């Protein structure tokens, strides 16, 4: 019999029918909101906890702690409790109420601080005391390995090996690192395109990290190109995805879609896949769809 954890991954890949204006290019969205926790972060959350248990780094009496902007926290809250492990999640106070309530619904303790950088510092300080185990999605290889083992192979299979460009928003960078590793092994000519906010833009789930907070798992050599997307552009595209494609997702997905569509206009042919990171209902208390 299947458990809820067996439903992580194998998410749908759907072709955009209306937004794409280049008939010689196919653009597909990988619908990660179909994971049980509602986002792409279910994959690394499961792999980080499961791998730590298998190595003996943690057990059921351990206390986990993690800094998160939201989706990883929801995934960890869901999965940690299924393994019977306590977890404290540290989030920016600007996070939507839906995210906090979802984590608490799964049984996690939630602490709110002023910024994601402050959250990361707080989590590191508490883990240094020895009372908590820091999963550290920003430096944990089990983050990107989840995508090397699952997301990349799914995309390769579901495009019938025809993918030419992979587009992903960059937060922890686990998705783009793991998918790049796998896809480049299959075909070194596949272009890996990262998406980040323009200066002064704020897009949940995508970051322009200060150098001192750059994720340790990030290897710039695995990304062929980075496209900057503005907050306004990501917002407009997120709304258009819902209204014109029926893809109800968050702003980071709008950012990735914007990058994919911009990229498509440069190509004479190709198959582009972008990651639709989560579901739009996670943002209904914000002004994203207002």
UniProtKB/TrEMBL annotation:
<dbReference type="Pfam" id="PF00291">
    <property type="entry name" value="PALP"/>
</dbReference>
<protein>
    <recommendedName>
        <fullName>Cysteine synthase</fullName>
        <ecNumber>2.5.1.47</ecNumber>
    </recommendedName>
</protein>
<keyword id="KW-0808">Transferase</keyword>
<dbReference type="GO" id="GO:0004124">
    <property type="term" value="F:cysteine synthase activity"/>
</dbReference>
<dbReference type="InterPro" id="IPR050214">
    <property type="entry name" value="Cys_Synth/Cystath_Beta-Synth"/>
</dbReference>
<dbReference type="GO" id="GO:0006535">
    <property type="term" value="P:cysteine biosynthetic process from serine"/>
</dbReference>
<comment type="similarity">
    <text>Belongs to the cysteine synthase/cystathionine beta-synthase family.</text>
</comment>
<keyword id="KW-0663">Pyridoxal phosphate</keyword>
<dbReference type="InterPro" id="IPR005856">
    <property type="entry name" value="Cys_synth"/>
</dbReference>
<keyword id="KW-0198">Cysteine biosynthesis</keyword>
<feature type="domain" description="Tryptophan synthase beta chain-like PALP">
    <location>
        <begin position="5"/>
        <end position="278"/>
    </location>
</feature>
<comment type="pathway">
    <text>Amino-acid biosynthesis; L-cysteine biosynthesis; L-cysteine from L-serine: step 2/2.</text>
</comment>
<feature type="binding site">
    <location>
        <begin position="171"/>
        <end position="175"/>
    </location>
    <ligand>
        <name>pyridoxal 5'-phosphate</name>
    </ligand>
</feature>
<feature type="binding site">
    <location>
        <position position="71"/>
    </location>
    <ligand>
        <name>pyridoxal 5'-phosphate</name>
    </ligand>
</feature>
<feature type="modified residue" description="N6-(pyridoxal phosphate)lysine">
    <location>
        <position position="41"/>
    </location>
</feature>
<dbReference type="InterPro" id="IPR001926">
    <property type="entry name" value="TrpB-like_PALP"/>
</dbReference>
<dbReference type="InterPro" id="IPR036052">
    <property type="entry name" value="TrpB-like_PALP_sf"/>
</dbReference>
<feature type="binding site">
    <location>
        <position position="252"/>
    </location>
    <ligand>
        <name>pyridoxal 5'-phosphate</name>
    </ligand>
</feature>
<dbReference type="InterPro" id="IPR005858">
    <property type="entry name" value="CysM"/>
</dbReference>
<dbReference type="InterPro" id="IPR001216">
    <property type="entry name" value="P-phosphate_BS"/>
</dbReference>
<keyword id="KW-0028">Amino-acid biosynthesis</keyword>
């Amino acid at each position: 019999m299947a458990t809820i954890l067996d439903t992580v991954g194998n998410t749908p890949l759907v072709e955009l029918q209306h937004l794409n204006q280049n008939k010689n290019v196919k653009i597909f969205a990988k619908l990660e909101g179909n994971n049980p926790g509602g986002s792409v972060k279910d994959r690394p959350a499961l792999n980080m906890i499961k791998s730590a248990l298998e190595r003996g780094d943690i057990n059921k009496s351990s206390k986990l702690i993690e800094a998160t902007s939201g989706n990883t926290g929801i995934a960890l809250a869901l999965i940690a409790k299924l393994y019977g492990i306590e977890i404290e999640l540290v989030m920016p106070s600007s996070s939507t109420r839906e995210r906090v309530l979802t984590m608490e619904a799964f049984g996690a303790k939630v602490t709110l601080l002023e910024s994601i950088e402050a959250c990361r510092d707080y989590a590191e300080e508490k883990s240094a005391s020895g009372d908590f185990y820091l999963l550290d999605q920003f430096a944990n290889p089990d983050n990107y390995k989840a995508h090397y083992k699952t997301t990349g192979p799914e995309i390769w299979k579901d495009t019938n090996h025809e993918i030419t460009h992979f587009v992903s928003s960059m937060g922890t960078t686990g998705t783009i690192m793991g998918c790049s590793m796998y896809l480049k092994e299959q075909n070194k000519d596949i272009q890996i395109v990262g998406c980040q906010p323009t200066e002064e833009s704020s897009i949940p789930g995508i970051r322009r990290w200060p150098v001192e907070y750059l994720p340790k798992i990030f290897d710039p050599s695995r990304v062929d190109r980075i496209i900057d997307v503005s907050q306004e552009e990501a917002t407009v595209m997120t709304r258009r995805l819902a209204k014109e494609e029926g893809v109800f997702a968050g702003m980071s997905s709008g950012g990735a879609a914007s990058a994919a569509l911009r990229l498509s206009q440069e190509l004479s042919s190709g198959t582009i896949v972008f990651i639709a990171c989560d579901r739009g209902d996670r943002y209904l208390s914000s002004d994203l769809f207002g």
